[in-house]
């Protein structure tokens, strides 16, 4: 997720207001980040990256020019091949074999015709971002998006981060609440799991965190399983081979219970642990982390 603006005669990454970039809100020229992505794709020939542009660029074909200058055009997934009306996307293998490993969306409809960049809201539904989108049990669409259950848009993007970044509380945000919201948005999106998950401070959690959420979503998308680790190839298909759960241990005696520490003495929300090493793919940027899921 990148906010792009015209600034100082070129295209910049900027988190600003009023449709303009200023010295105080500017980050860096977009070309540098795009060249980093170009290098990554060159060094990792089986990876796919998706970029969502919050687009404030008004210079004629400004986006097209900066992408061409970065060298990324050779990886471009063309708009003409994107599925309309909820159709299926190509498989990962197809995209890799054709070297069409960069998918780019813009928030401006006219850029599809002028710059060859897909208009996001034709292909993606997205829930409300910011604190309003973190209310338990609720997954409304953001204003620009069609309703979450609009099946004509085949991709689902789930936001889960507060309006004002709060690293100290990100352990809580990126843990149970994130997983719970994924279930809520699954129902709101017409029983569709997210293809993309956007969070702040993705490394912070009190457990598996964003990695665990992606692992679960990938498992559901790939083989209807609770973890991608349980998805196994079986001929031409992928099946779920989740381990059978062991029966719970017998209840502890009252004497044993009395020796256990009082859970009220601990503050789980203050305990941050590094995320587990799970099956996930992410793109980091200056604002949020978007986790990419291509199991279509």
Briefly characterize the structure.
The chain contains nine helices and 13 strands. It has helices at 30-43, 62-70, 92-97, 111-114, 120-123, 170-173, 176-188, 209-223, 254-257; strands at residues 2-7, 10-14, 26-29, 49-56, 102-106, 118-119, 124-126, 155-159, 196-199, 231-234, 237-240, 282-284, 289-292.
Form type: globular
Main beta sheet: strand number and arrangement?
Answer: 6 strands, mixed
Q: CATH homologous superfamily name of the largest domain?
A: Phosphatidylinositol (PI) phosphodiesterase
CATH-assigned fold name of the largest domain: TIM Barrel
Quote the beta fraction: 15-25%
Determine and state the CATH class of the largest domain.
Alpha Beta
Estimate nothing, just give the exact number of structural domains: 2
* SSE series: EEEHEHHEHEHEEHHEHEEHEE
Tally of DSSP β-strands = 13
Average pLDDT value? 86
Query: How are the strands of the biggest sheet laid out side by side?
Result: 3-2-1-4-5-6
Report, as a whole number of angstroms, the end-to-end distance. Answer: 21 Å
* Continuous helix count: 9
Biased composition (Low complexity): 252-270
GO molecular function: phosphoric diester hydrolase activity
Pfam families: PI-PLC_cat (PF26178)
InterPro entries: PI-PLC_domain, PLC-like_Pdiesterase_TIM-brl
């Amino acid at each position: 997720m990148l906010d792009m603006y015209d600034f100082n005669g070129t295209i910049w990454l900027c988190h600003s207001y009023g449709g303009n970039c200023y010295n105080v809100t500017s980050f860096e020229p977009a070309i540098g980040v795009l060249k980093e992505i170009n290098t990554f794709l060159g060094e990792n020939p089986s990876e796919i990256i998706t970029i969502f542009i919050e687009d404030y660029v008004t210079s004629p074909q400004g986006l097209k020019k900066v992408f061409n200058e970065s060298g990324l055009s050779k990886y471009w997934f063309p708009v003409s091949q994107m599925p309309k009306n909820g159709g299926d996307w190509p498989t990962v293998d197809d995209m890799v074999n054709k070297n069409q490993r960069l998918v780019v969306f813009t928030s401006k409809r006219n850029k599809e015709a002028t710059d060859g960049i897909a208009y996001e809201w034709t292909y993606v539904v997205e829930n409300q971002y910011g604190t309003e989108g973190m209310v338990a049990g609720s997954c409304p669409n953001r204003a620009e998006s069609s309703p979450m259950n609009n099946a004509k848009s085949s991709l689902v993007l789930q936001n889960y981060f507060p309006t004002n970044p709060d690293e100290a509380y990100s352990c809580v945000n990126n843990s149970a609440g994130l997983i719970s919201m994924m279930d809520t948005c699954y129902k709101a999106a017409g029983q569709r799991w997210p293809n993309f998950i956007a969070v702040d401070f993705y490394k912070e959690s009190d457990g598996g965190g964003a990695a665990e959420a992606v692992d679960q979503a990938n498992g559901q998308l790939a083989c209807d399983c609770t973890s991608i680790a349980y998805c196994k190839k079986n001929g031409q298909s992928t099946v779920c081979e989740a381990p059978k759960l062991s029966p719970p241990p017998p209840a502890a005696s009252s004497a044993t219970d009395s020796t256990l520490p009082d859970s009220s003495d601990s503050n789980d929300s203050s305990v941050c642990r590094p995320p587990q090493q799970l099956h996930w793919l992410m793109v980091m940027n200056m604002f949020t982390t978007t986790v990419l899921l291509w199991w279509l």
